[in-house]
């Protein structure tokens, strides 16, 4: 395997094409914590490939992440790559490993990527647990960036206005918000949550942002979608718990799957 992350993504894409028996794919979806059951609503499963069968991938270490790459034929006849899980910085992975899935999708010909996640809600006065929220922008608090050197990428519009408008046509009531990414794995303190609210954050999580930056570097159109699984630290009386995140995901999986299926078929 190559040590160059872009070459490695090309090798993974070649292995993916061979394993799936397809030359190209139309869209990629990365399923966050609790989102994996929603993948069942996307269409017919053509094949499932363990991450560990592809160059550069490792099995996810987080509960709620499936560890497989599913190839789905949608109702409209499109071929979707569905990443059932992702890697995170807090697992001790380097940044290139965290964004390897997105780079592999780009190398496989995908031009659109949908990034989903479970998020803490920073605005409980307007957000309900179980609500999907479109990501309109982000604040990168991870201390990391997948791009090094003198490659300067414009991030004025990381999350596609066109795709967000398409989702609002499907679900006019859906809210939008700014997603803040921390490295994790600790949840944020109440003081940090007060700071993020002041800065204009609406959602808090430990993923998505680095993948979105890598996707924009590759020229992909990006849609980000969060599922509010809990109020952020200090905004409710209960302590934060990853199992709660997964429970909300399971409870809302069918609804999220229907939404994603409609979006994919209208791309």
UniProtKB/TrEMBL annotation:
Gene Ontology terms for molecular function: purine-nucleoside phosphorylase activity
Transmembrane segments: none
Enzyme's top EC category: transferase
Record key words, sorted: Glycosyltransferase, Transferase
Domain Nucleoside phosphorylase: 27-264
Pfam families: PNP_UDP_1
Enzyme Commission (EC) number: 2.4.2.1
Pathway, per record: Purine metabolism; purine nucleoside salvage
Reactions listed under catalytic activity: a purine 2'-deoxy-D-ribonucleoside + phosphate = a purine nucleobase + 2-deoxy-alpha-D-ribose 1-phosphate
Assembly and binders: Homotrimer.
Family per record: Belongs to the PNP/MTAP phosphorylase family.
Protein task: The purine nucleoside phosphorylases catalyze the phosphorolytic breakdown of the N-glycosidic bond in the beta-(deoxy)ribonucleoside molecules, with the formation of the corresponding free purine bases and pentose-1-phosphate. Cleaves guanosine, inosine, 2'-deoxyguanosine and 2'-deoxyinosine.
Name recorded for this polypeptide: Purine nucleoside phosphorylase
Species name: Nonomuraea indica
């Amino acid at each position: 395997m190559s040590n160059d992350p872009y070459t490695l993504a090309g090798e993974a894409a070649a292995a993916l094409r061979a394993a799936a028996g397809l030359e190209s794919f139309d869209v990629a979806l990365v399923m966050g914590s609790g989102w994996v059951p929603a993948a069942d609503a996307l269409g017919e499963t053509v094949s499932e490939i363990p991450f560990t069968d592809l160059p550069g991938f490792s099995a996810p270490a987080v509960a709620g992440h499936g560890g497989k790459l599913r190839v789905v034929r949608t109702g409209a006849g499109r071929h979707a790559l569905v990443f059932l899980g992702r890697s995170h910085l807090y697992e001790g992975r380097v940044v290139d490993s965290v964004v390897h899935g997105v780079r592999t999708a780009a190398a496989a010909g995908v031009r659109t990527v949908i990034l989903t996640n479970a998020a803490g809600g920073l605005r409980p006065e307007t957000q309900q647990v179980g609500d999907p929220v479109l990501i309109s922008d982000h604040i990168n608090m991870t201390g990391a960036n997948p791009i090094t050197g003198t490659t300067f990428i414009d991030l004025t519009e990381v999350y596609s206005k066109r795709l967000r408008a398409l989702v609002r046509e499907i679900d006019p009531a859906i809210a939008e918000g700014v997603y803040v990414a921390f490295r994790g794995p600790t949840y944020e303190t109440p003081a940090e949550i007060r700071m993020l609210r002041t800065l204009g954050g609406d959602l808090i999580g430990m993923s998505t942002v680095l993948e979105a930056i890598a996707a924009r570097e590759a020229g992909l159109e990006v849609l980000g979608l969060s599922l509010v699984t809990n109020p952020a630290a200090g905004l409710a009386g209960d302590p934060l718990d990853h199992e709660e995140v997964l429970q909300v995901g399971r409870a809302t999986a069918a609804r999220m799957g229907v939404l994603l299926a409609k979006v994919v078929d209208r791309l």
